[in-house]
């Protein structure tokens, strides 16, 4: 194999400029390594990219995926480690009330971190449940504190579970308890339980299957806020790429990696359209299952061969509509979640994957109420997400079902007061599970990656220092700690530390890392 090595500095390749890849690049660029990102698309951000659509009226901008920006602390610390301050690069707006929940069964909750208002909202369903909120918050504050060491450290083997900080947290995992069952200890009304468990959607899982550990997701929203970065989550990606490039990262767009090259089990380089290049370490940010099954020979993967990957549990997929509208939707909150009456059945349909759900729950973001510049003057954007099945076997024929499901989704928007929408559409883009799979390289269209059941968490998730190969590392939603932006940023931090150790890199090029890390900590008002 003839490969060119251009410098004597250790060379690191990152496959993918998604949030995990960009965060890893920022951190690794602070060492003496030379860092190259290969991104197959002509833009950064992956599932967190900005969709830009020019219309006659001007530009519409949508986030492709994430719209809830949670727990900014981790990214703020990463910026500090790079000698920057997140608040100099991004304008984060706290959304409060953080979202409106509409129940088909009847009733609404405007979820807020204002303790008195939230108690009033919940008391309308059940006074006892309102009283339990502060107990839920206190218990989950302790749970997050106990579990943080496990979330912030690598899980290289089962032995890592025995580390003192981690061991202490294990009982709190309640391995066999679902999130819904756990919440029944606090809340009697099923709708209130849903208000504290629908967040399992961020993991693409049903609250009836999702491990109870993930009650910390709702807690994090109330404790640390739900934020909107001005310009959308895509603006976060732009800020990260800028810091990475300023630090010397070679960011190559439109540069798909075709193969990771090995000498035995050791990664030695990358093949792309430009030819082969030698690298000392390869960081995979591309979707884990997709990347392994296409870029790495099956025969050298012991723990994660193709047939095992195929039988793992994966998250659901999503049917997306990005609508650029003439006029606005003034009475609609920034975030609205509609929970259908047969929520359980809805999830069963999604798990079976035989047909599109008949009576789906959905989520709508009306970002222009907070950030009008996302649409041209006199216009607005709507982002509609409907959880649907990933491709299971032959899967649903989305080419055949796309139009009828679009009609169903538009009709259902009326349930949250959005009427007369179709006539006003000036731009429209739809993503089905088939698009996620084929256009965005997401394995079977499972948008939120490997599921987060206990058998696929911690040391049982593909590891940051990838256990099957030497010189291959993982960042992003497919590795520890999991899917969702804050933990993806954490994965980049864990992985960068491991690479720094393994390659003996000199850390700390950033000159001033003593800046205050967390201006986002204080709650707006008294926290629940
Ligand atoms: C619809 C949706 C809604 C979401 N909502 C939220 C939310 O509200 N809050 C939240 O915190 N999280 C949310 N998430 C989850 C998560 O934050 C995002 O999916 C996130 O973008 C995943 O980041 P990642 O680092 O794993 O990489 P990805 O975003 O998957 O990026 C991987 C990159 O690798 C590139 N790539 C793939 N193959 C190759 C190759 N061969 N060569 C070079 N490059 C390659 C891809 O093009 C892509 O740019 C959401 C996800 C989705 C899909």
UniProtKB/TrEMBL annotation:
Tree of life domain: Bacteria
Gene3D superfamilies in the record: FAD/NAD(P)-binding domain
Organism (species): Rhodopila globiformis (Rhodopseudomonas globiformis)
Molecular-function GO term, any one: oxidoreductase activity, acting on the CH-CH group of donors
Amine oxidase domain span: 20-497
GO biological process: carotenoid biosynthetic process
UniProt cross-references to InterPro entries, sorted A to Z: Amino_oxidase, Carotenoid/retinoid_OxRdtase, FAD/NAD-bd_sf, Phytoene_DH_bac_CS
UniProt pathway: Carotenoid biosynthesis
PANTHER family for the chain: PHYTOENE DESATURASE
One Pfam family it belongs to: Amino_oxidase
Keywords per UniProt: Carotenoid biosynthesis, Oxidoreductase
Name of the molecule in the record: Phytoene desaturase
Entry similarity comment: Belongs to the carotenoid/retinoid oxidoreductase family.
